Amino acid sequence: MKNRALSIRAKLMILFSLTILFPVLIIAYVLPAYYTKLITTETEKLTESTLVGLTSNIQYYLDELERVTTIPYNYNEVMYALKIRSAGIYKQSDSYTKYKADYALYNTLPSVLENMHKEILGTLLLPLDGSIFYKDSRSTLYKARTDYAYQEQDWYKEAVKANGKATFVGVHPQDYLDIDPVQSVFSVARLIRDMDSRKPIAVIMSDADTVVIDRIVRQLISNDSVVVITDTNGQLVYASSDIPSETLKELSASSSTVNYRGEPYVQVSKTVPSSSWKVTSLIPQSRFTDKVRWMHTTGLIFASGGLVLTLFLFLAYSRKLLTPFREMIQVMRHVQRGDMTRRVDIQGTDEIAELGSALNRMIRQLDDMVISEYRAKLRQQDAEMQALQSQIKPHFLYNTLNGFIGLNRRREHDTLDRAIRSLSGLLRYILSSDTNITLAEEFEIIRKYADLQSMRFRDRLSFHFALDEALEGLKIPKLLLQPLVENSVVHGFEPCEHPCLIEVNAALQWEDGRSLAVIRVKDNGNGFEPAALPSKDRVGMRNVEERLSLSYPGVSTLHVHSAPDAGTLITITIDLQEEGYAHEHHCS
């Protein structure tokens, strides 16, 4: 057994072993990604448990605010005062009734509100008669503005729309107070309704200091995290840091990570049950990646070393490994263009050399097969074409001589003499050795044939010809159209009693961006039922179909449309662009 060089497989195995491919992939990518995912998951779980406590604390203050908005229901005198004010009968009431109503709103209700939690800043009560009552937990000096459009505010409209249920209002300025500077608060608003009639009598809103949320957040969340609270509409309620609008939109989309100030952050969310506010903690992804940075550094070192080593080995072996393949590709391209003389010259005994030798053998065998098949096909096609053409000549002569017999019987000797002279000229044209002629030459043959028939039938038969100049050079088999014209004379015109017109035209048409040669032979004779045509009368038609398919295989069609007493239309269509065959081989 002869010695063989290392195979390509062995060379590739050695190459990738030297570059330490798998260790590099594991150290540089798999392990850091695994530990980053592990740390991220653990941090998300820890943050989620922290958010549980955060949402509970926020829920506590919201519950306190919500409880404040129900206080009027606990005091009948307060409800009575609101009822007579909203009904518009306060001003017409007697002094005692006014005293009771004012005492409930200016003394009873404020004294109850004084004992609220210190973070509850104040309570705003708005009876429907337009009067305003405000109790500030911090100082009695703060008063509500009388020139403020309360009923135009979103929180007022939402409270009315909620029809008695608590409405949670996000962080907003207390611009309805005479206070400088204006402070930001979050609130709970509610529509107060009469217990008996269920009619609205007032709107109450209780405010809490945003310091409450900020203090809760600072106690539970680390400094590098960002806490964002949004309402049910995705509007910002609170943020421990400035939040760009783009980041707020990403939070509404509920994606796993968001972009905050150009860096990716992982988001963990919890919902406050009563208000459906979403509390989201944004954790910088760098917190996780920093912990595995040493793995990335080690992997980068290994990857860089492997890359340098791989580059060196490929440069050392590229000429030996790649040059033979390039040579084989060039040879195959020449073969594809039809050049069978090119061969591959590869030295050696390995698989590449064997592949080159096999390619050379394949090219030689393919060359022999193509030459033999091409010659056989040419011989076969030429024999078929000559056989079909030979069928036309006796068929044509038979029909023409029958016409001469008719002229002789009618003793039209002068006409017969001219017809015989025309036939001799036509036969010289037909019996030439050419098998393919131009469409213009075929039209010339048909015109000579038409002259013969016109002398025979005089005014009873007329012809019309139209040939597009663009198709004059189109190559077709000789006598392709003459049998169709002859069929129109014999089967369409001769049996009918009225004068007939036979039209032959060829035009270049465009359909779906493709150029088509459309040839039509039409007569207004008797017509026929195509399915009922006897086989002996289809000699010319069958001959045309076969010769057309031999000359234009797959790119031509022949369609016959005829009906009794309606004439006959024969349409030949040739695609001039299909694979470039018709245009290149038949329009030269």
TrEMBL record:
Its main location: membrane. SUPFAM superfamilies: ATPase domain of HSP90 chaperone/DNA topoisomerase II/histidine kinase (SSF55874), HAMP domain-like (SSF158472). CDD domains: HAMP. It is found in: Cell membrane. The keyword S-adenosyl-L-methionine does not apply. Residues 319-371 form the HAMP domain. The chain crosses the membrane at residues 12-35, 294-317. The keyword Transferase applies. This is Sensor histidine kinase. The lineage of its organism: Bacteria, Bacillati, Bacillota, Bacilli, Bacillales.
